[in-house]
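Input (structure):
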């Protein structure tokens, strides 16, 4: 399908919606931008841009009749696939596609897709740094930073797109036999892990995993699919797709991929042709085995993409974890404060707890995503949690689960996020002793009190730094 003269409706005017609108207009399509917010709450300048470029505007509702009059519907990932307008479009065989899927279809260079419940951003950042160090032409896009559609015009056939891809984005990759465009092709995919998440959108973990497994359908036999050998949840899809396999984790002898040494001090890579490489982790700074798993995966991706072993080792020595991902902030009164605001599911919280070898006071809570919190109480058998401060819409749910295994303090209120965070930090500090760690690892989304997890993390950091003033 060519876009010129086609009528295209774009649902959702977030970052990806705005980017794809600009590119589609440049292709000569007739565009309607639709968003649930009234026009005065659209991003600054967007309404004027629409008027200047002859772009139609629809507010407060995604109308069925608008979608039914379209040749193509492009959807932002946060919009649920089962809204009435999209269900009506599918019944009428009107193509529905996501911004990332559309941009990937038009991308001329190689595509790398990185997905998983946790660790996507860290792994994508590692690959980005390794390719930069090796001077391999590439861009970093997808669920991290710039939407791919904003970069289409700037790349060549040699430019690699390193994409962090969420399940929400993969939901809008049309199944290949229904693709209205030339389907994208991923030369390399990586599936890091699978744990319960977004169960407010998916029926269960299997349907959540199925959304991620779609990435395998866009590969050929000469491509590479990389998988975490230690994550048993991924076994269901071990035979999905036709790409060649590489693995990472505690690998058995003879399994090709990146094997973690039992001491976690090195990573050994064995390629299918039996050639070996060894990477030293003595200067590796991010905490936790999960970050070493992310690194192992990134090594495989980067080497396949053309980075030399020397460039990879150099990044291992210099890489720092991304903000709000088990980030050490400061020490006050002998207490260490960690910002893990990006931990929006139980699996990521458990990994954070197991990565800190100090008694912990945990700050947890926010807007729930349909998870069972019982495993957090079970964690007290393996990790010393001195107490929990529970916040946000899920505060009562956490208190109910945790009150029998540890002291729990509930901080009420969701209207003022900064004020609530300040109270939570003060309560946590009152429970902690010198030598302890206070860990913000919410296990929930931030949308009850903050715009995003970054704002939540900064509220925590600002408060703990003020403690030392």
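Output (sequence):
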């Amino acid at each position: 399908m060519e876009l010129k003269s086609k009528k295209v409706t774009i649902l959702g005017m977030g970052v990806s919606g705005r980017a794809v609108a600009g590119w589609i207009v440049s292709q000569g399509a007739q565009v309607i931008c639709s968003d649930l917010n009234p026009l005065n709450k659209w991003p600054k300048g967007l309404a004027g841009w629409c008027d200047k470029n002859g772009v139609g505007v629809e507010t407060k509702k995604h109308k069925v009749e608008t979608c039914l009059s379209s040749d193509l519907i492009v959807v932002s990932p946060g919009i649920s696939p089962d809204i009435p307008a999209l269900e009506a479009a599918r019944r009428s065989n009107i193509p529905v596609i996501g911004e990332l899927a559309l941009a990937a279809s038009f991308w001329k260079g190689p595509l790398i897709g990185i997905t998983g419940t946790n660790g996507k951003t860290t792994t994508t950042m590692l690959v980005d740094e390794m390719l930069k160090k090796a001077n391999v032409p590439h861009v970093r896009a997808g669920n991290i930073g710039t939407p791919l559609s904003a970069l289409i015009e700037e790349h060549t056939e040699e430019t690699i797109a390193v994409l962090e891809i969420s399940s929400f984005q993969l939901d809008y990759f049309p199944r290949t036999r229904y693709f209205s465009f030339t389907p994208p092709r991923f030369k390399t995919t990586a599936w890091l892990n699978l744990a319960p998440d977004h169960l407010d959108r998916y029926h269960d973990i299997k349907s959540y995993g199925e959304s991620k497994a779609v990435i395998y359908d866009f590969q050929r036999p000469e491509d590479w699919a990389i998988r975490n050998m230690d994550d048993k949840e991924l076994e269901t899809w071990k035979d999905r797709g036709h790409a060649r396999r590489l693995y990472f984790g505690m690998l058995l002898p003879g399994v090709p991929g990146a094997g973690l040494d039992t001491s976690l001090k090195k990573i050994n890579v064995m390629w299918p042709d039996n050639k070996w490489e060894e990477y030293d982790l003595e200067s590796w700074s991010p905490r936790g085995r999960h970050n070493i798993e992310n690194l192992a995966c990134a090594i495989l991706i980067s080497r396949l993409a053309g980075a030399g072993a020397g460039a990879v080792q150099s990044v291992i020595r210099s890489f720092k974890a991304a903000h709000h991902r088990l980030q050490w902030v400061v020490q006050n009164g002998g207490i260490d404060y960690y910002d893990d605001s990006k931990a929006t599911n139980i699996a990521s919280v458990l990994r954070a707890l197991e990565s800190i070898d100090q008694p912990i006071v945990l700050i947890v809570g926010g807007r729930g995503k349909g998870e069972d919190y019982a495993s957090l109480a079970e964690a007290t058998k393996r990790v010393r949690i001195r107490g929990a401060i529970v916040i946000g819409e899920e505060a009562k749910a956490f208190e109910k689960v945790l009150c029998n295994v540890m002291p729990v303090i509930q901080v009420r209120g969701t209207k003022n996020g900064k004020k609530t965070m300040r109270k939570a930090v003060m309560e946590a500090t009152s429970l902690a002793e010198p030598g302890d760690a206070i860990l913000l690892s919410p296990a929930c989304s931030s949308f009850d009190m903050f715009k995003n997890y970054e704002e939540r993390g900064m509220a925590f950091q600002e408060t703990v730094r003020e403690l030392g003033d």
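Notes: The first strand starts at residue 7 and ends at 11. The CA atoms of residues 303 and 309 lie 7 Å apart.
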